[in-house]
Fold this sequence. Notes:
The protein is mainly β. Helices cover 9% and strands 36% of the residues. The protein contains four helices and 32 strands. The strands form nine sheets. The chain has a nine-stranded antiparallel sheet, with no helix packed on it. The protein has a six-stranded antiparallel sheet with strand order 19-30-27-24-21-22, with no helix packed on it. A hairpin with a 4-residue loop joins β5 and β6. The longest helix has 18 residues, at 2-19. It starts with a helix and ends with a strand. It binds beta-D-glucopyranose (BGC). Beta-D-glucopyranose binds next to β27.
Amino acid sequence: MFHMKKIVAFAHVLLAGFSACVVSPTPREHAPIDKERVSAFSDTINKKPVRLYTLKNKNGMTVEISNYGATLVAIHVPDKNGSSKNVLLGYDDINGYYSGKSYFGCVVGRYANRIAKGSFTLDGNVYQLPQNDGLNSLHGGGNSIDKQVWDARIMNDAIRFTIVMKDGENGYPGNVKLTVVYSLRADNSLVIDYSALTDKSTILNISNHAYFNLSGDPSQSILDHEIKINADAFTPVDSTLIPTGELKTVAGTPFDFLTAKKIGRDIDNQDQQLIFGKGYDHNFVLNKSGDGIPAVEVENKTTGIKMDVRTTQPGIQFYTGNFLNGTEKGRAVAYQFRTGFCLETQQFPDAPNQPNFPSAVLRPGETWKSRTSYTFSVVK
Ligand code: BGC
């Protein structure tokens, strides 16, 4: 029996090794696969394989992705001295992702961020979603696509994940086929292409919930990172973090990041919005700008690592890890208050209940598409 178990375990690691393909233009540059790590992220759920995939380019960037939640598990980039730093918060094995409550690196939907009281009306029908954040519904209402196994397909320098969100699942109407493609470019850009189709009118807001710490050391606070956000306005919230509907100018507020400043500079100001969010946890209304101009630029002076975020989405949730409190663990630390920040590109939170916000409705026959890229460079 023991012997049998051992063979099965070995076959499992072997199989995992095959599917954990490291994609790069020439097979000779494939990185050696860390078998132990691959094994720690391999499993089977309802007969579906859970695997760790790795994208690697020639400029020292490596990205690990699980098909559980289409989750970014690690992003290694070179720092100003040429040594590799993992700039992502994450767990050490797949079990961490099963039980994790902070949405580390995963794709969130069917409606990212909050819907007030978990309720919305579409074409005269009232829909009720799970209320998993006080009275509100957060990131699809719990046990959503972030807690499911996606189908994966390895492409040239990319991995494509697909999932079907069923009609009625978590209360949402319509069968929605969602595709997320992660591509790693030679210029150290990780490009995420999202697309979706529905068979009934529905609402949709899909994002990635990666937590970054560009120091590469997740025991360090993110408050010394310098950030610039190309947004003249943000959407203020009530005490339950539901937008009031106002688009408020950032001028003269702690939300003005039009010129780069430290995340921590104003974060503890006695500002009602910062008190509600316990820090920044707000949607920024991105200025329309050319493709080349980043929506956000963030930099850590110690490592010199800089990240530019570009997106086709109208908004971005800047969340400074205010709910991290040491209960989630990984990378040899307990993740503490404000040791990671998220830049979740998105439709505006609660848009289905907010007539002034851009519509987040998807109709049959339409294809919803969006693209977000995270580009890493070094400032010496
Ligand atoms: C929300 C936060 C929430 C976090 C983790 C963010 O998108 O804006 O309020 O705590 O996700 O769930």
